[in-house]
Amino acid sequence: MSKLILLLLILFLALHPSSPRPEPYAMRISCGARLNVHTAPTNTLWYKDFGYTGGRPANASPTSYIAPPLKTLRYFPLSDGPENCYNIKRVPKGHYAVRIFFALVAEPNFENEPLFDVSIQGSQIYSLRSGWSTSDDQSFTEALVFVADGSLSSCVHSTGHGDPAILSFEILQVDDKAYYFGSNWGQGTILRTAKRLNCGSTLSKFDADYNGDHWGGDRFWHKATTFQQSSGKVRSVESKIKKASVSPNFYPEEIYQTALISTDSLPELSYNMDVDPNRNYSIWLHFAEIDVGITNVGQRIFDILINGDIAFKDVDIIRMSGGAHMAIVLNKTIAVNGRTLTITIHPTKGNAIINAIEVFEVIPAESKTLTEEVGALQTLKNALGLPLRFGWNGDPCVPQQHPWSGVDCLYDKKNLKWVIDGLTLDNQALRGFLSNDISKLHHLQSINLSGNSIHGTIPSSLGTITGLEVLDLSFNFFNGSIPESLGMLTSLKRLNLNGNLLSGRVPAALGGRLLHRASFKTATWAGLGFSIFQTAQRPM
Ligand SMILES: *[C@@H]1O[C@H](CO)[C@@H](O)[C@H](O)[C@H]1NC(C)=O
Ligand SMILES: *[C@@H]1O[C@H](CO)[C@@H](O)[C@H](O)[C@H]1NC(C)=O
Ligand SMILES: *[C@@H]1O[C@H](CO)[C@@H](O)[C@H](O)[C@H]1NC(C)=O
Ligand SMILES: *[C@@H]1O[C@H](CO)[C@@H](O)[C@H](O)[C@H]1NC(C)=O
């Protein structure tokens, strides 16, 4: 028996001399599609739409020839809530390129070009700019994120300029160490692709079009035959480039087979791009010496300046890469205060050359809301029958630009998590009941549910929210008696229960001790139309 296993093992090893790295995880979703889709020319599989929290399917009108050739999209009218998400489960722990293509709803009466915000794992990564649908590399957003807990969530947030619309959602695994740039790199940061240029190339292409390694994450390389400021001349070769497709970034060899080279009359090459101010950017510069006649160390030397500061001094590609037709990548992360990023190749010997440029915005990953509290809010959402327009999808507190409405958040510095300290849902036409799970929101200081049609009893679990200072349940249909447990709320400053259908006696603790410190408004014993309103002075 064991001999047989050994034999099989030897046979297996003989047939697979060096077992290749497995294929990376890839999940592609065709938003709004009712069936799986295969697209040409690579026969790529796009799953039918799943994992969304709301929105509606519609036909897509493509914006850019680089968008995948899909026919449907999902759009999110404001009446479905201001934030909607894709929540994908069972994503293996790892490092991922997440890419979302936008599109326009193919119907005449739809406002063109919705502008909205996009978040991944609770961090806002992108705001669509007006004019995006006419610019190829703005028809999608892409970011590198880590998945630690098996799920990946990405949300769109309405900004009041049309309905967000999503053509596709891709989750492509990359190397665990991809784009390692130094000590700040890791789980705490997200890298959003701001620009990726294949200098000297006349065609824009994806890694897949270059037969690139799948572990590269199928990057999009925008053609660049000129920089606005300094034109340069295009050089392209067919020779093999060594050290291109290596770990951890697996760049396609072809991006090194073209370059922009400055001319004698204008020896500097300078690339300018607009950026959002006061952010950190990680800049990756690609070189391979492909110029005829430059074969030795010392023939071409240049400094690289980023926004005027020297980032790399005396770069000599042949010396650093080991020879002609060998790839080398330099990376530098810098803070940018202004609205422009300028990369200048300033030669001190020969002309300037550049093969490719990548610019990432370094985004600090937001802390999330305490899981137990998110769960409690979801239970409350269902129990209270919160209208669709509230949304309440994704994370309640982050991105900080788009918290759930009616929810007040507080950052708990000790646990590095957000918690809920206020619930303000007065006059929202809520018709459900108040779930006992409200007590799982341990950090609540204030609850106002006044002026709704909430029925059922007041949960006695409220008595365990020890920090509660304000509890206003007035003008609802709460019935039964006031729970004794409310007497345990020693921090309570205001308690409004008037305008309900409560019966029985006022708990002794409320009627006695508490009244000395709290403003206490209770009400109406059923049928009697009788109400008490008392305000007590704090003890002097
Ligand atoms: C990027 O640069 C940092 C330091 O500047 C270096 O430690 C790191 O290895 C570089 N990353 C890659 C992938 O070359
Ligand atoms: C930029 O990086 C520096 C140092 O790594 C850090 O202190 C700063 O908070 C970062 N700024 C932003 C906006 O992320
Ligand atoms: C709760 O909301 C109602 C209605 O908007 C408001 O009148 C009341 O003052 C609020 N209660 C507290 C304790 O702030
Ligand atoms: C409270 O009202 C509900 C109906 O909304 C009823 O079923 C229940 O018996 C009432 N409870 C009390 C204690 O009156």
Please give the structural blueprint.
Blueprint: H1 2-15, E1 26-30, E2 37-39, E3 44-46, E4 56-61, E5 72-75, E6 83-88, E7 94-102, E8 104-105, E9 115-120, E10 123-127, E11 140-147, E12 152-161, E13 165-174, E14 189-199, E15 205-206, E16 220-224, E17 233-236, E18 258-261, E19 269-274, E20 279-288, E21 301-306, E22 309-315, H2 317-321, E23 327-336, E24 340-349, E25 353-354, E26 356-364, H3 371-384, E27 407-412, E28 417-424, E29 446-448, E30 455-457, E31 470-472, E32 477-480, E33 494-496, E34 501-502, H4 508-511, E35 519-525, E36 530-535
In short:
The chain has 540 residues and is mainly beta. It has four helices and 36 strands.
What does this structure look like?
The chain is mainly β. It has three domains: about 150 residues, Galactose-binding lectin (Jelly Rolls, Sandwich), CATH 2.60.120; about 180 residues, Sandwich (Jelly Rolls), CATH 2.60.120.430; about 160 residues, Leucine-rich repeat, LRR (right-handed beta-alpha superhelix) (Alpha-Beta Horseshoe), CATH 3.80.10.10. The protein has four helices and 36 strands. Strands 1, 4, 5, 7, 8, 11, 13, 14, 15, 16, 20, 23 and 26 form a 13-stranded mixed beta sheet that branches. A seven-stranded mixed beta sheet has the order 27-28-29-31-33-35-36, with no helix packed on it. A hairpin with a 2-residue loop joins strand 9 and strand 10. The radius of gyration is 30 Å and the shape is elongated. It starts with a helix and ends in a 5-residue tail after the last strand. One 2-acetamido-2-deoxy-beta-D-glucopyranose binds next to strand 23. The site of one 2-acetamido-2-deoxy-beta-D-glucopyranose has 6 residues, from strand 20.
